[in-house]
Each structure stands twice: as C-alpha cells, then as structure tokens.
Amino acid sequence: MTQRLFWLRLAAIFIAPGLAVPLAALAIAAPADPLKSPMWENHAAWLFGKQTVVFDPAVQVLMPDVTENQRIFPVTVDARALSGVQRIVVLMDLNPLPVAIDYRPEGALGYVSLRIKLDQRTPVRAAVLTADGVWHVAGRWIDAAGGGCSAPPVSRVKGDWAQHLGELRGRLWREAEDQRLRVLVRHPMDTGMVDNIAAYNLETMTVRSADGVMLGTMTINGSVSEDPAFTVLLPKETKGAVAVHLADTNGRTFDGKVSAP
Fold this sequence. Notes:
- Helix content is 13%, strand content 38%.
- By secondary structure, it is mainly beta.
- The protein has a single domain, classed as SoxY domain (Immunoglobulin-like, Sandwich).
- The strands form two sheets. Strands 1-8-7-4-5-12-11-14-15 form a nine-stranded mixed β-sheet, with no helix packed on it.
- Strand 4 (85-92) and strand 5 form a beta hairpin.
- It is globular.
C-alpha cells in the first residue's frame, strides 16, 4: 500500500465526507508514547484531533501473550471503569489497515471483544472517548509472525465462501451482572492486499432492543478477522429479542434476531 493511499483510508474513516481539514489543523501535542511506537504521533493526529489524550490503566486491553494465529487474534477492551464511554477504537499501529473497529456503545456498556488480523509485530491499543471529550488510551506490543492482512482467507482457499456468506449466529446470556451478546457472521473480510482479490469486508453493525432502541453501532474495517465474532455487554434490563443488522462494502445486508434462552 502506498503512503498516500494509507492516509486517504484513514481520512475516509475519521473525517466527514466533504469536510476539508488541513493536516496542520489536526496536529496536536500528543503525550509521549510509553510504547515508543514510530507511528504514534501520526495516528494521534488523525484519530484524536485537538482533543485531550491520556494513557489510562482504567482501560483494560486483554489479549494473549503469544500470537498463535496472526489471522485470528482475540482482543477484549473493558472500559467499564470509565463513565460516559462514547467510542471505543481498536488500533494496531503498524498494521497496513491500522483501525479495526470504531464502536459506539450508545445504549450498551463500555466493553467489546473481537478478533483481528496482525501483519507484523505492533502495538495493539484501545482508545476510549468519554463524554468530557478525553481519549483514554491503553495497550501493549504484541509479537506476530506477519501476513495476517496479506494472506487469503481460509474460505477463499476452500472455495466455499459464497455458499456461507452472511450466515449469522448469535447468543444472548446473563453472566453475573452482565447481559452478553455474541454475534458471529460468515464473511471473508478481504483486505485487498492479496493478489486478484479485491477488498471486501463488513462495514457496519447496529444492535437494537426489541422496542427499537439503539444499543450500539460499529464501523468495521478489513483488519477484523475472517468470519468476525463480536461480544458486547447490554444493560441488564434489556428484554426480548435483540435485532442485529450488518452491511458490507458491496451493499449486501445481513439481519438476525437473538433471544435469551
């Protein structure tokens, strides 16, 4: 990927269409990165603009110490210790597609779990925006053999991806004080970095309660693993079937309802 295309993709995600913002206007004096990533200042300028950024242990980024499979690496972000969580962004500094998701827990709790691709050794971070306009950042370096974004998905190799595209499974259950929703959807999540395979990935997901109240919205990028699995926490008062709606970059939509057992 060229440097120009890399930044254009980031701009398309985080700058509203038609809004021309000079890079100088976005620049901030980002706090010194405890992970000493060579990409930190660039990512901070694009992602956070002039908003305040703090490194905060209240954001828990839970992931394995060892990368067993760089195509499917589990990450959980638990920001429930913060109040007024508005957004959760999962970022892999040195990935060619650095942003995995941008999750807005509108009626849900500040928690999300997913699986990502790792293309090389990189910091994996969560950036959590709270209602006071402050971004709370945490993460750590993860070693990876490489190729997570540039290897063809298993379903492409097997040749059966089209037969299972959009198959959706879900589970809703109570665990302690939490009500957990887990959604799995069959999709190749092509990054566009494999020869002769164009970029093709899930783009958005919304979750609504049985009475139509928005519980969460998510922007999804190609650095999420093939056949994505997402877990979010819903208010314990949520009753009835939860409606899940997904859309991909080819305009296809996938819908399902998940009820508690």
